[in-house]
Structures are given as C-alpha cells and as structure tokens.
Write a structure and sequence with these properties.
By secondary structure, the chain is mainly β. The protein is 2% helix and 36% strand. It has two domains: 125 residues, no CATH class; 316 residues, Pectate Lyase C-like (3 Solenoid). It has a 13-stranded parallel beta sheet with strand order 10-11-14-17-20-23-26-29-32-35-38-41-44, with no helix packed on it.
Length: 474
C-alpha cells in the first residue's frame, strides 16, 4: 500500500441521481488511474448541514487500469462512498448511508486534522458539481516577503525579482497604495486582509495566481480591479474580495475583473460586494471557470459577448455561486440582434439566486433575468441544479431562464417569477425542472423553435431552501 504524498486532490462531481463523476490527481496534477483508496476520517458538519448522519469513518474506492492503493489517513473502511473508476480516471458512483439510502446532500465530511482543516463536500439534488481539493499550506517557494513598511515602489521591485514559480507574500494589514504590474508564472499571496487601492495589471500574461489564504481573508480590492485582458492560460484569482467597483468609462470590460480576450483561467471563492456592471466581462473569452463566488448587491455580475469564431466562447463554467440582491440580470451571454454569437460547452450549475432588487431604466423589467444564455449559435449548453428564487421584492416579474441551442436544462427549482423561461433556436432538452408561484410556464419563443420540452413539476407548497452551496477548499 503506497502513501500518497500531500498535497493531493480528489475531484468529485455529483449528479442529481446520486451518481458521481470523479477524478483523483496527485499534488503535481497527474491523473491517478487506480485502483486507489482514499481514506478520510471525521464527522459531518451537523450545524450547517442538519441532514448529516453523524460521526463516522469512510473510504473512497477508486478503481482503474493500474494496481495498488493509496491511503491518505488511517481509518476503518466504511463503504458509504464508493467510486468505481474507469481507466481514463472518470467514475460512476453512488453515495449512500449505512442503510444503503442514496444521499442527496449537500453534506460535508471533515478530514483528519493532521492534514489541515480540509473537507470533502458531497452533493446530490441540491449540490451538483461538488469537489474537494486540499488547502495548500502556504505560498509556493521560493517566497519573497513584503514588509509592512515597504513602499509601492519597493513592492514592485520585489515583484519583478520573483523567480518563475515563486511567490510574493503580503502580510495581513498591508495596504497596496497604487497599481502593480504583474508578470507570468508567479503567485501573489495574502496571509490575511490586504487592502488594494490600485489596479493589478496581469494583461497578456500566463501561469499566475492572485489569492488569499482562505475565503474572505485575502486581497481586498477597494473600488479597483484586476486586469486579465488577454491573459492566456493557467491563471487564478481566489479568496479575494472586491468592494464597490464602479462602472468604468468603457462600461464593458469588467468593473472587478476585466476579461477581454482572456482564456484558460479560474476565479474561485471570491466575494463581490456592491460592484457595478459589468462585474466580470466581456469580449472574446475562452475556457473560464467561476466557482464559489458570491455576488452581493451587484449589477449584472456577468456580461459576455462573442463573435462567430469557434476558437473562443468555449467551456465557460459558472458553478456554486451565489447571487443576492442583483439589480439587473445576473448573467447575459451573447445578446445580439445582428450576430449569431458562438458559445459551446457552457455550464451553469448548482448556483443560488435570491432577492433580486431590480433597478429599471425604461425597459419595464425586461432585463430582470437570472440566467440569460442567448448566443444564437450556442451548442452543448448545460443549466442544471440551480435554485432560482426571485425573492419577495420583485416577485411576479422577470424571466428565470433564457436557453438557446442544443444542450440540457434540468433539475432547476424556479420560484416567484413571471416567466419560468424562454427557449430559443433548436434541439434543446428542457426536462425535470420544478416551479413554484410562477406565472407562465417555459415555452419556445417564437413557437417555431423546437426541441424537447417536458412541462415542469408544479409545486403546491414552497420547497425547502437549500441554502448557499458550499465552496470548495482551495
């Protein structure tokens, strides 16, 4: 039995029926092709997840083409979580309790404290796309430290000297008094709250990370943004806070994170508070993931525009995010009356929408939308397992979902909207959704658009609020 050296990573994606797609990777990102057993030790978080089933030990079995096992923590095997992997690292799994009943989460399993305050988040009908990644213990070496008395010029000089793969570490309580120019292949690490009063410019770079140690304790951007325009691979912004970002003069390319031309990047566990639209945007993006971000009292968190080229607009993922107090649309992809904009592989899953507080102009609530995916050349779109509640203030207005082109829209719970949704173009598959206190059911608009439309289940009593989706540990 081999011991898997830390950090390790187990990615778990859970579907509504309890089935799981999983991958196990080592600390270097190499896919483990098993069979491997990952043992975890701990208890459910009964305070935040009252449906948990108590203290236990458990095992994840990952099978595959290779032989051997990996034991992460010594624990008695408990077959509540069984993942049967294929040779390519993907897996189908059923997650059950001791009685064999499928768990429909979300649930949290604490991991042995010897490995830090890590956790595995398991989901079901309320938590699609759950995953587990160990929290790193600190910034990647070699580390260059910023001192509390360093001037902006001194910080920029230190940043310029950080070698590829290294980190610039900021102490909690430091204030960055102006703009910094980043570079490729470095990490900017905040031990705790670091106030940022100038733009961080990472335009046309790759391989970098801007992050705090934990969610809510990192770089705190005060009305300024990160410029990721044309950033082109393996970049990350995580555990950061963006407050009061204004709409900039161009009005388009992101009040908090400018994404024009950006590709192959991730924004993880960030908080956006009172940021004006567009918060994240906007032109010709590709392969972007936004995971576990909270948008509170923001105007139009997402606005994305593409042309007709098939070399961009691919594989956007928005998952486990919270949208509360949104003052316009939460997201718009591809609105255009003249161009059939191209998106493919777009996934919007396991998000939580509530408390819309629309500020109309002259459009009479026409732009009050939760999920608006209207690129006319879109293919292979997934909208699944979202909680979409208008809330009380604007109840009876707006449209919950606009869905365009091929793909699947399923297992969404829609509450208190005027329109459940509009379906555009052809060959969509709309099925197994739920609605409560919704005025008008989903329909193709106009009626000559065709696909599979299964009427949603009409709930006669208000469904249980699942609460905010759990963030991954990152």
């Amino acid at each position: 039995m081999a011991l898997l050296s830390l950090p390790y990573q187990v990615q778990i994606t859970v579907r509504a029926d309890g089935k799981t797609i999983a991958q196990c990777r080592d600390g270097d990102g190499n896919l483990l092709q098993g069979p491997y057993s990952v043992y975890v030790n701990g208890s459910f978080d009964t305070q935040n997840h009252p449906n948990s089933i108590g203290t236990f030990t458990s095992r994840i079995d990952m099978g595959g083409q290779d032989s051997g096992q990996v034991q992460v923590a010594g624990a008695v095997a408990w077959k509540s979580i069984r993942i049967n992997c294929k040779a390519d690292g993907t897996a189908i799994s059923t997650t059950t309790n001791e009685a064999g009943v499928i768990l429909h989460g979300p649930y949290v399993i604490g991991v042995n404290e010897a490995f830090g305050a890590n956790r595995i988040v398991l989901g079901g009908q309320d938590d699609v796309g759950a995953s587990f990644v160990t929290t790193t213990t600190g910034p990647p070496a070699p580390v260059t430290n910023v001192a509390l008395g360093d001037t902006l010029a001194m910080v920029q000089t230190k940043l310029n000297a950080v070698p590829a793969g290294g980190s610039l570490r900021f102490p909690g309580g430091y204030t960055i008094t102006g703009s910094l120019t980043g570079k490729s292949n470095i990490t900017l690490w905040a031990d705790d709250d670091v106030l940022v009063n100038g733009t961080m410019n990472f335009q046309n770079t790759a391989g970098w990370t801007i992050r705090g140690a934990t969610p809510g304790h990192g770089f705190r951007f005060n009305g300024v943004r990160v410029n990721t325009n044309d950033a082109n691979g393996n970049w990350f912004i995580g555990n950061c806070i963006f407050n009061n970002a204004p709409t900039f003069a161009d009005g388009n390319d992101g009040s908090a994170v400018g994404l024009n031309g950006a590709s192959f990047g991730s924004i993880i566990n960030c908080d956006f508070n009172n940021c004006q639209g567009t918060v994240l945007g906007k032109y010709t993006t590709d392969n972007i993931t936004v995971d576990g971000c909270h948008f509170i009292n923001c105007r139009q968190p997402f606005s994305l525009q593409q042309g007709t080229s098939t070399s961009s607009g691919r594989n956007w993922t928005i998952q486990r995010c919270v949208f509360s107090g949104t003052t316009r649309a939460a997201m718009e992809f591809g609105p255009s009356s003249t161009t059939a904009e191209y998106f493919t592989g777009l996934v919007v899953s396991n998000n939580y929408f509530t408390g819309f507080n629309y500020t109309p102009n002259s459009d009479n609530f026409a732009a009050l939308l939760a999920i608006s995916l209207v690129g006319q050349a879109s293919t292979n779109t997934t909208v699944a397992n979202n909680w979409i509640d208008m809330g009380l203030l604007d109840r009876g207005h707006g449209a919950a979902i606009e869905f365009t082109g091929t793909g699947e829209c399923t297992n969404n719970t829609i509450l208190n909207w005027l329109f459940e949704g509009f379906l555009y173009q052809f060959n969509w598959n709309y099925h197994d959704n739920f609605r409560y206190n919704v005025g008008i059911a989903a329909f193709p608009n106009p009626s000559n658009y065709t696909g599979t439309l299964e009427p949603s289940t009409v709930l006669t009593t208000a469904p249980r609020d699942p609460g905010w989706p759990a963030r991954i540990s990152w």
